[in-house]
């Protein structure tokens, strides 16, 4: 009798959810009859039948919550690599992550073609120091295959107390080499503006690592400071920047565009568009020559800024093709403290190009493979401290050459 009651309750819960979904589909897609209410209910009956069999015959008794959570995990996983179901603990972890400080490795991960893939390592984190790269596929975590793992499940395994270790088996995307890497977890403190300096000849350089709530304000302070120090041109480094908040990316792009310029727009399944234009700012940097650096670790907000400024002819892109993650994800809390992380729209550039799963090709391709020295050699020990030496970063040197040429052109046209 208990199982029968459970069966009825679960069917009622799912019926309410699917009925709402069917109503939305019917309202928003009146001409699309591929999804019918009767078909949904037939499949719901099938789900109920399978659930009843599991409850009756599975070798062990499984708590109802685990069955439902498992079903929701599978449901969201079947949609796309970025949608996911967050149990209450997973939802809390997501909220902690937005605060910019947490225990873990310092990598942005996603599911691509069913494989657990690194979007980008965050600079100066344990993952970065261990040599993990954008595009690396995590085959195993502590010896266990990740083939059937969910994104939320992977995050739980990778995060942990600072000082503890996790062993990753990693497949390098380009070389197809498999390596085992042991990473010691640490406190991840995310600093949006990693570096803001004058390199030489009045060329400013800013390394932007993520897009968060105060990123635009911090960027503005850095730009004003560099302007006072004689900045005539700018290199904006978005390499290995996995993105972040959409509004923050729009605010960052607004620093370099006239008011009202289209930066990006989103489009839902119904064709509804939301357009994001450049905002009024106290200080604008409209005329100085500008180069934006991107690579395989540049995703989401980085791609929005890079594409928006290039299509307005405001900046030239240099580096390698970006990651190709440009979808709008909405966090929808549920009644029991869990949540849905659901893809609700996709981003499009001002000229109507989709970035999602395609990435952005730079105007000038300069790959990291041309760097002869190790990446960590870019930092030199000076009086016991690491000092940034940009002359050992081949991509920055190429960006400097490009900016110098833009400065010559701008001076000749005056």
What does this structure look like?
The chain is an alpha+beta fold. The chain has 3 domains: 2-24 and 33-62; 102-189, Pdz3 Domain (Roll); 193-330 and 340-412, 2-enoyl-CoA Hydratase, Chain A, domain 1 (Alpha-Beta Complex). The protein is built from 10 helices and 21 strands. The strands form 6 sheets. Strands 10-11-12-15-16-19 form a 6-stranded mixed sheet, with helices on both faces. A hairpin with a 6-residue loop joins strand 7 and strand 8 (178-184). The longest helix is centred in the N-terminal third of the chain and has 27 residues, at 2-28. 31% of the residues are buried.
From the structure above, extract its key features.
414 residues; alpha+beta; Pdz3 Domain; 2-enoyl-CoA Hydratase, Chain A, domain 1; 3 domains; six-stranded mixed beta sheet; five-stranded antiparallel beta sheet; 10 helices; 33% helix; globular
